[in-house]
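Good morning,

Attaching, inline, the backbone tokens for the sequence recovery test we're adding to the shared suite. The designed sequence is right after.
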């Protein structure tokens, strides 16, 4: 082996040693970062805005990975925690989902049952009625005979809403007088009130909801629960 070959071998060995040293340095940095950051865990981030009292589902959130040490104790790491829950406040896009953002869906009281009816999306809900709200249910009926006046009646007062579904397009050919978009609204009602709202949904010309303010006015007297235009003074 001549001197030129020896120099080549030496340079090759030095290159290998430098590469090993750089690799060891990288491993050291990675190990140092991992020791400071710690292991990663699963968390969930809000995809798009979720309104208060809205029922929650997995599609509203995206799965992410982040260091466990950076995760708060009340962060949600399993979407099974969403079962039977609603948002307690507005969930904004990009926010990390935490357990104090959600609460149990309102439960039925003894003697109550869940009843869902379809409500005109434009005039009956208008985006302001959410789970947990209290509403008065109005229904407008045509007179039974041509000579009978049309009437507007308060069917149920202070009904508790426990769920608001997604807007559904109705078949416009079914009934030209019916709305084209409707929302399923689920109430917690007594047996009698459940019959009243289902009757109204089946036979009333229109069913509307009126939002009752918290601590609002007392029960409406029976004499004021039926309205006829001819008797308005």
């Amino acid at each position: 082996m001549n001197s030129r070959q020896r120099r080549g071998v030496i340079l090759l060995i030095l290159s290998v040693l430098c590469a090993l040293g750089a690799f060891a340095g990288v491993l050291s940095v990675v190990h140092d970062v991992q020791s400071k950051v710690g292991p990663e865990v699963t968390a969930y981030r809000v995809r798009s805005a979720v309104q208060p009292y809205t029922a929650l589902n997995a599609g509203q959130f995206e799965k992410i990975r982040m260091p466990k040490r950076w995760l708060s104790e009340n962060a949600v790491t399993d979407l099974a925690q969403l079962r039977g829950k609603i948002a307690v406040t507005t969930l904004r896009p990009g926010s990390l989902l935490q357990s104090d953002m959600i609460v149990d869906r309102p439960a039925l009281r003894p003697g109550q049952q869940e009843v869902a009816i379809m409500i005109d999306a434009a005039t009956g809900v208008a985006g302001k009625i959410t789970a947990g709200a209290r509403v008065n249910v109005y229904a407008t009926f045509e007179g039974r005979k041509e000579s009978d006046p049309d009437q507007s009646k308060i069917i149920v007062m202070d009904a508790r809403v426990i769920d608001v579904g997604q807007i559904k397009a109705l078949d416009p050919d079914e009934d030209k007088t019916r709305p084209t978009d409707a929302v399923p609204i689920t109430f917690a009602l007594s047996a009698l009130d459940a019959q009243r709202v289902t009757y109204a949904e089946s036979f009333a010309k229109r069913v509307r909801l009126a939002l009752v303010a918290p601590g609002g006015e007392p029960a409406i007297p029976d004499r004021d629960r039926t309205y006829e235009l001819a008797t308005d003074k």
